[in-house]
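Hi again,

Forgot to attach this to my earlier email, sorry! This is the prediction with nicotinamide-adenine-dinucleotide bound. I've pasted everything inline since the attachment limit keeps bouncing my files.
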Amino acid sequence: MTIELTHWIDGKHVNGTSGRFSDVYNPATGEVQSKCPLASDAEMDAAVASAKAAQPAWAATNPQRRARVLMKFVTLLHRDMDKLAEALSREHGKTMPDAKGDVIRGLEVAEFCIGAPHLLKGEFTNDAGPGIDMYSMRQPIGVAAGITPFNFPAMIPMWKFCPAIAAGNAFILKPSERDPSVPLMLAELMKEAGLPDGILQVVNGDKGAVDAILDHEDIGAIGFVGSTAIAQYVYSRGTANGKRVQCFGGAKNHMIIMPDADLDQAADALLGAGYGAAGERCMAISVAVPVGEGTADRLMEKLIPKVEKLKIAPYTDGNDADFGPVVTAEAKARILGLVDQGVKEGATLAVDGRGFTMQGYENGFFVGACLFDNVTKDMEIYKQEIFGPVLSVVRAKDYEEALALAMDHEYGNGVAIYTRDGDAARDFVSRINVGMIGVNVPIPVPLAYHTFGGWKKSVFGDLNQHGPDAFRFYTRTKTVTSRWPSGIKDGAAFSIPTMD
Ligand code: NAD
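Structure tokens for the complex follow:
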């Protein structure tokens, strides 16, 4: 029987009332396992109204007490790790170890946010002028919202709501309608950790719910993560409505392999970074750029047998699978269509995973690993984010050509260089126009206390996610200039005051 999922409003599960639902699949079997309610404008209005009503008391709760909720939340995440990972794998398709990684990378941001009292401390200047003190404080926005993608259904919601809530906001989370169960479970845990009702509302939905957030006059800040076209749309419409908006979009991450690199290490790094989570990561490496024909030939020799041996399996098959199915039948069809196009455009398909089927799971959304060689800049498989288990090798004749490839690509999320030469690495780090860089590290996802964000078409807005930037994004600065009566006894002043 298909389960009907809910929204989470005012600390409890609430059935959808719009009459609209979307199907949630088990990607391994291809079966519909539940229905996700798609909120109407009226449902969004009700969720925002009660968030708005609950927020002032939460903002007035001292930051230490707010942080203690997150402290407890972290403990509960550890307690329920297996349960969360299982629910996540069942809807997303990723392996259980990878699903736990998804939860842990979110949990680390919750841990960072326990430092909110320190992060929210303002600035103070004693004696800024005669008898004058000046101080700046950070105050919450009020009601903030987060719109999140399917590929990290635990981590990205936590990247959004943990700092927003620690800073004293109420939060409306609109998770991906493809895997909404884990966000609902996270909301239950936040309640168990002591969060007052109304401070975290999970409103499920599609474009309708997103538009309702973008146009809602009581929502002051919106954090979005998803594909670039939607990121740009959310940014334009949200900022046109006067909101603070940060949107993180798609990616095409290059890994440059210099002739002096340890090629065994580089090939292993490409396997994990290219095919882990079936390539459904915004920090996946989807382009390998060996420098020099000799490097390219040797790399291909090492890569081909390794890619052919990758183990693809449903998450229920144990923890030794390399990756599972992709998220939906549409995603599978799109990936296979792009691989066909790459072949038509003249790239060499060195490993062809198109015919892969999983015995016993013939209706699952499995795609075999594909490896392209001789990919060129003009090909669609190079220009587009494929978001599947497909790695493209683009051969560069020298370092400058490799650098230019990554620099000229419209996306600028992550990039990596493999080399033993410190000088090449330093030059690369200094010149590349990409937000997150790995030196002999294939997936350079910054830790919770640094910030996460790309450049170019991978981002719209000016502050990054998590780390100190998150507290800047979810707060407003208020600056007070204060002078006490002893300074006024001299009488009125009629020229603009200066502090010299
Ligand atoms: P998506 O853009 O399809 O969906 C993201 C969110 O937008 C979802 O909540 C969805 O319901 C909503 N949405 C979808 N279509 C919409 C529309 N027409 N109007 C308004 N809202 C809409 O993205 P996805 O497929 O869920 O996630 C994969 C994408 O996310 C990839 O492009 C990946 O690179 C990107 N991503 C980026 C980062 C980053 O930090 N840069 C992190 C993870 C994923």
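The chain has two domains: 3-249+458-480, 253-439. The radius of gyration is 25 Å.

That should be everything now.

G.
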